[in-house]
């Protein structure tokens, strides 16, 4: 016992000495990345080329090379871009960093890597053969639309292939999932477990037995809880977080906005803060020294909307703002996904082999609201009064109508003139709502990848030609001077700004069909939606979103000028270098 006490005392003394030393070192030499002073010039040999003088992360002056010569000194580095194109840093206004991090190391069975049902399940069976007994097998990307002959897994099949491993599959849409019996056993869910709600449930066969299907966010939550404690170890978490942040930057994103953070406690917030905040925390720096947090480098700014069921993790008030890392609002879901039948529609899905037999959407099905109107009304009142920005998932026309109606009712008692509350995804955003949306100061963020990746299926098999021509009415919203944004909904699709821009400009599906020709944007419109308007949407337009004197030096160097290439090559433009706060991020 004495030896144990002595050893414990030595450890405590070591920790205290380390803490005191690190605290003194932290206060004397803060581990900052943000000391810089340089001039970025488009072409050093052309005196009238545009140039920027950057000091400590901000744009001090913009002018010609001649005009900025006065700033040149031995402490100022001149960077010659040799005529390359420079644009403001892109802002991803709706992404899912925590889920992207979680899925980054998972097995990919998506349509991006597999072209047939046979390929998908052959790959899965190889994964099982190489797995250790008892190891969790997590796969992502299951999608019967991108892989058009795909047969979703049954629990019987999964149990036969993986009797000794818990298995969990994520659909590409991230709205439905599949698991085998071993996984259900671990999370203590069986045929008698009550469904979280009518719209979020565990699928059953005609005998009342679990069939492996898991639908929507509340139903998958128990699995997330287990995976975060048993699968995503501290080391994996650190590596995945750094990797995903770097990928955002490589694609030209200088700011990301997490729309509904999926976490259970405040521990991940310490990691997120450490990755993006300008000023590191003492505890974070200590944990970095001991390898419990990644080494700090320049990462994208990170702003977050907390999930409605994780509101207890939010700050008590919204009195101050951080320009690099902050919780800025809260998100709720009013409907779900077009690809599992949970999008809420005015008119039913059309009957087809895809809708009825592959996606198992019943005849005459219109979807339903995931929460009742009174519940949503109370939610909006509570958080609006606390001065939080509200984001609501609205895919279908019925969903958009209901949410706009609720805001209109509440306008009699609440002031929305400066609120900038958001409507997320807007696949079937009804044009007749646009004037009301403007009056209520609502701002939409459109999931434009619906058109490119799923436009053909939507037209032929899910909502029909007439409605498919009306999806994502970008030009109609723009023409009413409503600020809006575009997003990829990563990890559903990679956060690639120029893929979004090309789709918004061309309105073409992956097969080359055109949907909603009259809703095309110009290239400049599309770029603005991902820069200045995206900054406005998160109340940061005075600090980021454009290259102006006094703003942060967030910009991207491109290999081609997007205003001078054929529109069908926009998605091939490469981001050569990404600068955030004047620092190279990739």
SSE arrangement:
Elements lengths: L1 H27 L8 E5 L8 E6 L2 E7 H4 L8 E4 L4 E4 L1 E6 L1 H7 L3 E2 L8 H13 L7 E6 L12 H7 L5 E5 L4 E4 L1 H6 L14 E4 L5 E6 L1 H14 L3 H17 L2 E9 L5 H10 L5 H8 L11 E7 L17 E9 L19 H6 L14 H13 L3 E6 L2 H14 L11 E4 L8 H6 L3 E5 L1 H14 L1 H5 L5 H6 L5 E3 L9 H10 L16 H7 L2 H6 L17 E4 L16 E6 L2 E2 L2
Parallel strand pairs: 1-4, 6-13, 7-8, 8-9, 13-14, 14-15, 15-16, 16-17, 17-18, 18-19
Antiparallel strand pairs: 1-2, 2-3, 5-20, 9-10, 10-12, 11-12, 20-21, 21-22
Please give a handful of descriptors for the protein shown.
alpha/beta; globular
Brief write-up:
Helix content is 34%, strand content 19%. The protein contains 20 helices and 22 strands. The strands form four sheets. An eight-stranded parallel β-sheet has the order 6-13-14-15-16-17-18-19.
Walkthrough of the structure:
- This protein has 586 residues and is α/β, with parallel strands linked by helices.
- 34% of the residues lie in helices and 19% in strands.
- It has 20 helices and 22 strands.
- The strands form four sheets. Strands 6-13-14-15-16-17-18-19 form an eight-stranded parallel β-sheet.
- Helix 3 (97-103) crosses helix 8.
How many beta-strand runs?
22
Largest β sheet strand count, sense and barrel closure = 8 strands, parallel
Helix content: 25-40%
Q: How large a portion of the residues is in β-strands, by DSSP E?
A: 15-25%
> Outline, from the CA principal axes?
globular
Radius of gyration: 25 Å
Q: Average pLDDT value?
A: 88
**Order of strands side by side in the largest beta sheet?**
6-13-14-15-16-17-18-19
* Broad structural category: alpha/beta
Q: Kindly report how far apart the N and C termini lie.
A: 53 Å
Spans of 5+ residues with little confidence (pLDDT < 50)?
Answer: none
- Number of helical segments? 20
Oligomer: single chain
């Amino acid at each position: 016992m004495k030896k144990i006490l002595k050893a414990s005392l030595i450890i405590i003394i070591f920790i205290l000495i380390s803490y005191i030393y690190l605290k003194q070192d932290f206060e004397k030499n803060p581990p900052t990345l943000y000391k810089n002073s340089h001039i970025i010039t488009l072409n050093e040999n052309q005196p009238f080329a545009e140039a920027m003088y950057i000091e400590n992360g901000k744009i001090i002056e913009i002018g010609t090379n001649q005009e900025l010569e006065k700033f040149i000194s031995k402490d100022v580095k001149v960077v010659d871009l040799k005529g390359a194109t420079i644009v403001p840093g892109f802002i991803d206004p709706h992404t899912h960093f925590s889920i992207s991090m979680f899925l980054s190391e998972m097995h990919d069975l998506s349509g991006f890597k597999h072209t047939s049902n046979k390929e998908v399940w052959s790959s899965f069976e190889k994964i099982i053969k190489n797995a250790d007994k008892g190891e969790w097998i997590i796969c992502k990307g299951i999608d019967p639309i991108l892989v058009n002959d795909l047969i979703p897994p049954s629990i019987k099949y999964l149990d036969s292939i993986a009797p000794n491993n818990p298995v969990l599959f994520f659909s590409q849409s991230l709205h439905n999932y599949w698991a085998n019996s071993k996984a259900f056993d671990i999370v203590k869910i069986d045929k008698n477990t009550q469904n979280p709600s009518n719209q979020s449930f565990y699928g059953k066969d005609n005998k009342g037995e679990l069939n492996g299907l898991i639908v929507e966010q509340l139903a998958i939550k128990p699995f997330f809880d287990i995976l975060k404690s048993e699968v995503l170890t501290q080391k994996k978490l650190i590596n995945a977080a750094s990797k995903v942040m770097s990928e955002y930057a490589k694609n030209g994103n200088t700011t990301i906005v997490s729309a509904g953070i999926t976490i259970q406690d405040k521990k991940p917030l310490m990691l997120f803060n450490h990755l993006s905040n300008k000023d590191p925390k003492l505890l974070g720096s200590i944990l970095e020294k001991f390898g419990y947090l990644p080494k700090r480098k320049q990462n994208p700014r990170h702003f977050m909307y907390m999930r409605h069921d994780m509101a207890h993790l939010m700050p008590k008030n919204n009195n101050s703002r951080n320009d690099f890392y902050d919780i800025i609002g809260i998100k709720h879901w009013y409907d779900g996904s077009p690809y599992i039948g949970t999008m809420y529609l005015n008119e039913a899905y059309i009957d087809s082999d895809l809708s009825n037999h592959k996606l198992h959407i019943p005849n005459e099905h219109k979807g339903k609201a995931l929460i009742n109107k009174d519940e949503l009304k109370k939610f909006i009142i509570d958080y609006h009064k606390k001065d939080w920005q509200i984001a609501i998932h609205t895919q279908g026309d019925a969903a958009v109508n209901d949410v706009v109606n609720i805001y209109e009712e509440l306008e009699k008692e609440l002031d929305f003139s400066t609120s900038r509350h958001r409507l997320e995804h807007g696949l079937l955003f009804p044009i007749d709502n646009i004037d009301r949306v403007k009056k209520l100061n609502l701002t939409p963020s459109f999931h434009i990848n619906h058109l490119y990746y799923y436009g053909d299926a939507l037209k032929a098999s899910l909502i029909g030609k007439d409605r498919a021509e009306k999806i994502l009415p970008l030009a109609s919203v723009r023409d009413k001077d409503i600020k809006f944004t575009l997003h990829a909904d990563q990890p559903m699709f990679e956060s690639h700004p120029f893929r979004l821009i090309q789709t918004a400009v061309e309105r073409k599906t992956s097969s080359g069909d055109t949907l909603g020709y009259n809703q095309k944007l110009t290239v400049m419109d599309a770029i603005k939606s991902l820069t200045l308007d995206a900054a406005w949407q998160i109340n940061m337009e005075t600090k980021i979103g454009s290259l102006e004197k006094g703003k942060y030096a967030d910009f991207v160097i491109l290999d081609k000028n997007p205003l001078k290439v054929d529109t069908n090559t926009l998605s091939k433009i490469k981001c050569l270098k990404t600068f955030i706060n004047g620092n190279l991020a990739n």
